[in-house]
């Protein structure tokens, strides 16, 4: 099969022919149709995440159809459409797994990082971590649901019932989360790179009541701020924008250092929390929401061989919505 490989040194992926993977017991063999390109993929190829499998096939927003079943698989049949997310394996017995916090598992496997992912024509995945996908989305539209949507949803969930939400960084995750927040009756304010009027128009089209630069103050104090841009300087900025008791949720796996700030900005029970990974429960809850409300998924499509261009466009902020690779 054709695959794009990260060899662990250069951020540039190499196109190669590699042997088809073979499903082990409990695994699905999947014909990949589409795979989303996530900011985490950039952190992998740029070396911000330091322990990748080498060589690695990146990609953890995989949509395809089941081609074959490993021994003992239940719940899927050949021909089923299936989605594969970032969480690819958990140990099931560490203190976190046992307390329903498998997103924090001590011995996890992550798709497209420690396990080969979906920048390829075929992949294998542990069936216990795969999802059936809502029918109303095409393969390309469904791909960003698997991380941008799903981990975005966990980020929103950590904001509790905050009625007034600010979203910093209006890319793939934000454009889905903003719609979910609107369906829940929350007010959404969007913060983009200063002067990025294109992204601000995009945010308003998807229901943001206001959109401005990350250096601007929102029209009213926020109850929570969700950070999807990997920029540590936004943490104190967001703290200043949240009201007493407000929460700043950092939704990315990697962020530049957070500059120091006066304790007064944190005072009055403001909180800063990070989001790590996902649980299968998050996946089921989010896919139910995506099935109930048809979300508008904005994508830019690239053939598999142009994965490097997709990553470069994401890095340089040239995308509106999500980049998705297609395999045929
Ligand atoms: Zn565990
Ligand atoms: Zn991701």
In terms of topology, how is this protein built?
Layout: E1 2-5, E2 14-17, E3 27-37, H1 39-45, E4 62-69, E5 81-84, E6 87-89, H2 95-98, E7 109-110, E8 122-126, H3 139-142, H4 148-157, E9 164-168, H5 172-183, E10 187-192, H6 197-205, E11 210-213, E12 222-227, H7 234-241, E13 242-250, E14 271-274, H8 280-292, E15 299-303, H9 307-315, E16 322-326
Parallel strand pairs: 9-10, 9-12, 10-11, 12-13, 13-14, 15-16
Antiparallel strand pairs: 1-2, 3-4, 3-8, 3-16, 4-5, 6-7
Helix pairs in contact: 4-5, 4-8
This protein binds zinc ion (ZN) (2 copies).
What fraction, in percent, of the residue positions are helical? 10-25%
Q: Number of folding domains? A: 2
Our measurement of the CA-to-CA distance between the termini, rounded to an integer number of angstroms, reads 12 Å
> What is the beta-strand fraction?
25-35%
**Class based on secondary structure composition and strand pairing:** alpha/beta
Annotated CATH architecture of the largest domain: Alpha-Beta Complex
| Order of H and E elements | EEEHEEEHEEHHEHEHEEHEEHEHE
Radius of gyration using CA atoms only: 19 Å
Number of helices: 9
Tally of DSSP β-strands? 16
**What does the overall shape look like?**
globular
Ligand list: zinc ion
Write down the overall mean pLDDT: 97
Largest sheet composition? 6 strands, mixed
Give the low-pLDDT segments: none
CATH fold type of the largest domain = Quinone Oxidoreductase, Chain A, domain 1
The CATH class label of the largest domain is Alpha Beta
